Amino acid sequence: MQANHALNYDYSVAKCFTYATILFGIIGMLIGVVIAYQMAFPELNYLAGEYGTFGRLRPLHTSGVIFGFLLSGIFATWYYIGQRVLKVSMAESPFLMVLGKLHFWLYMLVMIIAVVNLFLGSVPLKSMQS
Question: How far apart are CA 106 and CA 41, in angstroms?
Fold first, then answer.
């Protein structure tokens, strides 16, 4: 008969998503401050050329805050609380650890691609409006 042992939880994936939450929060909110100043002072709209205009930065701000900040926070919460709720330790399951880290890095890759495409104006806005 085995004695019950306490699970050893690993929060490394939760920490990665927490750092991503902080990073995307700072970047998204800084862009928000810039576009707020652009609305108050329209002459600031062309300081960085066409890449610094309100129309180019607004989708970057909203997508960055929604998908970067909020979604990273949700994933961090899930990887922290999920282990305890499900009584499954990521430290004791190499498969889950690989899956969690793969999730984080694929998420970061998709976010970087999305940010670059939004900043360059490659994403068609007409498809988003319909």
Answer: 38
